[in-house]
Amino acid sequence: MIGVMVDAPPMAARVLIIEDDPNVAEVVGRYLSREGYEVEIATDGVTGLERALADPPELVVLDLMLPSLGGLEVCKRLRAAAPVPVIILTALGEEADRIVGLELGADDYVAKPFSPRELTARVKAVLRRATGPLSAGAQTPAVLRAGELEVDITAHEARLGGELVALTAKEFDLLAYLMEHPRRAFRREELLEQVWGFSYGDTSTVTVHIRRLREKIETDPVLLPGELTSWRSQEPLMSSEPAILTTTVGSYPVPDWLPALPSGTDGVFA
Fold first, then answer.
1. Which of 131, 155, 187 is a domain's end point?
2. Could you tell me which residue, 217 or 57, shows the higher pLDDT?
3. Model confidence over 174-231: pLDDT tens digits?
4. Parallel, antiparallel, or unpaired for β 266-269 and 229-234?
5. What is the CB-side half-sphere exposure of residue 206 using CA atoms within 13 A?
6. What is d(CA 205, CA 2) in angstroms, rounded to the nearest whole number?
7. What does 106-132 look like in DSSP terms, one character per residue?
8. pLDDT class of 15 with cuts at 50, 70, 90
9. Which residue among 32, 131, 199, 249 is least packed, with the fewest CB closer than 10 Å?
10. pLDDT for 1 beyond 90
């Protein structure tokens, strides 16, 4: 009898849920399991961090209110040790915790009470961006360059002046997307859709990621083409005056290379 080799099914992505509420953990785990994910649950911060560091999963769903070790500290220690995507779960009114979590390197957040379907969709989107091809365009070069900044799409690395820049998966995706579209202005809603894969949601996550990127890659915060800059347009006081661009580094006349911007709009250009 001749043996026949067949392709084994691809391994399911493993998701670690760190959540002390057994009802929430069970519901989230059930929905993710239905989608084919391998689910592991930890009910406190110390255990969850130990498991994540011992055998890093493809993604962590992390509650912020945890016994033994808080979610923010878990996120901080995990992000310092491994580039594992993290989605944090927060109470509806905890905006400060959401911002801190994003600044510590979380890729996204979902506010409680939440729809398990929405969380599942966000897990899919984060994993798709973390593991899939950065862009469907066949013309995207393997290495993107802007001055001393170099982004290697294949190696998933960014270097500034030859030195490796430590970026989270989402920071890398955002930087690469902006470098693929130089001298173009984006509204935050556009980046949320193109980089995060969400057609709606809180754009504060974009704001936080842009700020973290600027801290890591900008050597001289001056409004020049090629710099990563947040902006808000403002109508001139007199028709003879140029439109004003209020940016994170000051107010300037709108550069010639930047397209016309409606008054009161804001976003990012590179």
1. 131
2. 57
3. 898 888 888 777 888 888 888 877 766 677 888 888 888 888 887 654 444 444 555 4
4. antiparallel
5. 26
6. 56
7. -SEEEEES--HHHHHHHHHHHHHHHHS
8. very high
9. 199
10. no
DSSP per-residue string spanning 188-218: HHHHHHHHS--SSS-THHHHHHHHHHHHHH-
Give Cβ neighbours of residue 180 (< 8 Å, ≥ 6 apart): 135, 137, 140, 144
Query: Could you tell me the pTM of the whole model?
Result: 0.58
Q: What is the dihedral of CA 241, 246, 250, 252, to 10 degrees?
A: -30
* Mean pLDDT confidence for 97-101: 78
State the amino acid at position 174 in one-letter form: L
Beta strands in the chain (DSSP E): 14-18, 38-42, 59-63, 86-91, 108-112, 143-146, 149-152, 157-160, 163-164, 185-187, 229-234, 244-247, 250-253, 266-269
Q: Which domain holds residue 110?
A: 14-131
Q: Give the closest residue to 198 by CA, choosing from 101, 99, 104, 128.
A: 128
Question: Into how many domains does the chain fold?
Answer: 2
Residue indicated by tokens 């999963």:
57
